[in-house]
Amino acid sequence: MFTLMDFKNTVEQQLIHNRDKSFFYELENGKLLLNPSGETIQLLIQKAKEISMFITDAKVMGTYKRLVRYISNQSIKVFFEVNQYLDFNRESYRVLQNIYGNLLEAICKLANQKEITEKDINHLFLVHYKNLQAFLLESNGTEIFKKYRKTPVLFEVKCAEYTPEFQMKVLNINLDTIKQPVLDIGCGPQTRLVRFLRKNGIQAFGMDRNLNSSNYLIDMNWLECPFKPNRWGTIISHMAFSNHFTHHHLKADGNFERYAQKYMEILNSLKHGGSFIYAPGLSFIEEALMKSNKSFAVTTNEYSTKVTRLT
Asked: Do 193 and 105 share a structural domain?
């Protein structure tokens, strides 16, 4: 009998199998480097009917959508771990869930065959990986994946989580004078700075992708978060929002305008005297802000920028 634990183990094992392989590198015969693992192939040959029954039962019991969400979320986590600049909105999640739903349906159809061969399974996964490739290109453009076409070894563009003390120093934050409430954009899954601030009596909140939401942690893409006017005393972002903004500013098909709009939305969500503190700096928009908007003051130091709302 194929169980939920078997399902999760299979998903994890397959993700690990392709973990270090470039999604866009093609072999000489035109095939993708990605492939089903030997364990996955044998599992489908031997237990395709059991897996099909498991999927059918999930539909009857109302847990099918949960399975699709699980495998989609696990894939998204891997994408983020590989390249922090990948971006997925709510529609992207819906599209990805449809892709994995199609994969599960294809496995059910495969189970109806009299004989299942390795060739059948390889073809099934090739179609699936082509769908995932198209999904990545549609959601993130072509520029970010150009280097991934040139080498079979997957290179990572990761973000690090620094100690609270280091972040406080870089952002030049003083616990005695910081204006509350505080929002840390791109706080990281370990939420180190948020927890540090809260332990020191600061009303602090964190926002990032793939967080476990709580009363002070927001699991959300910052581009989709509505920053309401006059809400925050201080918004901070160390090596997160501004790095992504710069990435889109420099990328040929980057989403620069949306980041610029969100930047202004963040500033307008500050209370009078409140500040948006971030590192690294964004000179290309800070200069334009100082020339066109007298409601904000921009101060910079060696490591970070502070934009304060004056009116």
From this structure: no
- Going by pLDDT thresholds of 50, 70 and 90, the confidence category of residue 156 is confident
The boundaries of the domain holding residue 82 are: 4-149
- Per the domain annotation, does 154 fall within a domain? no
Final residue in a domain of this structure, among 126, 149, 172: 149
Residues in the chain: 311
Helices (H), the chain: 4-17, 38-61, 64-82, 90-111, 118-140, 164-171, 192-199, 241-250, 256-268, 283-292
Residues forming beta bridges with residue 204, ordered by sequence position: 182
Answer whether residue 109 is part of any domain: yes
Per-residue pLDDT, 208: 95
| pLDDT tens figures, 40-81 | 999 999 999 999 999 999 999 999 999 999 999 999 999 998
Mean pLDDT, the chain, rounded, equals: 94
Has residue 94 got a pLDDT over 90? yes
Residues 76, 96: contact at Cβ < 8 Å? yes
Neighbours of 151 (CB within 10 A): 12
Residue 143 per-residue DSSP state? G
Here the tokens at position 194 are 């948020």
As given in the structure block, the two tokens for residue 286 are: 């800070």
Percent of the chain's residues with pLDDT above 70: 100
Best CA proximity match to 238, nearest among 159, 122, 134, 140: 159
What residues contact residue 305 under an 8 Å CB cut-off, 6+ apart?
242, 277, 278, 279, 280, 281, 282, 286, 298, 299
Q: CA separation (Å) from 279 to 172, 240, 307? A: 10, 8, 12
User: Hunting for tokens 């990761």 — which residue is that?
Assistant: 158
Q: Which of 116, 149, 182 is the last residue of a domain?
A: 149
What is the distance between the alpha carbons of residues 230 and 56, in angstroms, rounded to a whole number? 50
83 is a domain residue: yes
The residue behind tokens 């270090």 is 20
Angle in degrees, 0-180, between the axes of helices 90-111 and 118-140, rounded to the nearest 10: 170
